[in-house]
Amino acid sequence: MNEQVRFSWNIHWSCNYRCTYCLFAARWEEYAKRNVYKSPAEWEECWGRMHEHYGRCFLVINGGEPFTYPGFLDIIARISRWHWPINITTNVSVHLEEFTSRCDPAKVSLSVSFHPEHHRLDDFLNTVALLRKRGVNLGVINLVAWPPFIPDIPRYVEAFKTIGESLKLVPFIGTHEGVEYPAGYNAEQKSILGMSDHWVADKGHKGVLCQAGRLGALLLPNGNVARCGQIGDRHIIGNIFEPSFSLLSEPLPCDVPFCPCDEWKVIPDEKPPEQAGAWLP
Question: Which of 38, 134, 164, 247 is the least crowded, having the fewest Cβ atoms under 10 Å away?
Fold first, then answer.
């Protein structure tokens, strides 16, 4: 296969934060029952098989909070010998010192999430500046546009500009005070977010042939591989721990009305150099 495959990897349903606006709010304990924890050696064997089948893959790792997964940095050290770019979404609350001492920014990057319920703005800005100073490759800085945050968003945007950073505003998906979002944003809120009136409509691809499941897939914490995050358990391709696991052989029509993550865009536009260095052991 010449095309680079992308796996979005929900490494475990566990987090040291409890954000009101999280997709898993009030369901962490329920979802955690399905977590399956593997050792770094077991993950190395698993991702070695994926390399044999698909070559170098692009990995997007989230959770929960990936850095609270037991042995996480050792897992990344092992699998980054075969697979990159690797982008890890984190709340930057744990293990950053070790990460910055071991990571090769040509292979591994962070996308960091600003959570006003847990972070002081000045402290978070200092953390981002420190990561930059230490050479960490930062993908994006995320802020979920939960309706109570919106009045402060202009101030947050300006604060990040002062350290040369931009803030990615992620539309809230869920219910707040009886209103369903993102459809429920009013005109003023959309203006603050830079969100067009047809944003929701533009995120629909139902019936269109989609590469999700063939060139990209969602890896769940129990090893099951779903076609994408929007379909989830409704279309499990197989289990990555099974030696016989394989992705779909051809694209299938999209069967969801709303695709906010655009998982059909499965291949990164830019790739690090082929000879990028390895993680330090």
Answer: 164
SS (H, E, C) 178-212: CEEECCCCCHHHHHHHCCCCCHHHHCCCCCCEECE
Which sequence spans correspond to the domains of the chain?
A: 6-253
SS3 assignment, position 76: helix
Residues 6+ apart with CB under 8 A from 110: 87, 88, 89, 90, 92, 99, 131, 136, 137, 138, 139
User: How many other C-beta atoms can be found within 10 angstroms of the C-beta atom of residue 27?
Assistant: 11
Over residues 228-237, the pLDDT tens digits come to 988 889 999 9
Separation CA 241–CA 222 (nearest Å): 9
pLDDT one-digit tens code per residue, 98-118: 999 988 999 999 999 999 999
Q: Is the predicted pLDDT of residue 280 greater than 60, yes or no? A: no
Contact at 8 Å (CB) between 212 and 256? no
pLDDT at 190 over 80: yes
The Cα–Cα gap between 259 and 256 comes to: 7
Look at the block and give the residue holding tokens 């950073």: 165
Q: Is the pLDDT of residue 277 over 50?
A: no
Q: Is the dihedral of CA 27, 32, 35, 41 positive or negative?
A: positive
Helix (H, G, I), strand (E, B) or coil at 234: helix
The pLDDT of 158-186, averaged and rounded, is: 95
User: Which CATH code of 3.20.20.70, 3.30.70.890, 3.20.20.10, 3.50.50.60 fits the domain covering 6-253?
Assistant: 3.20.20.70
Q: What confidence tens digit (pLDDT) does each residue in 42-76 have? A: 999 999 999 999 999 999 999 899 999 999 999 99
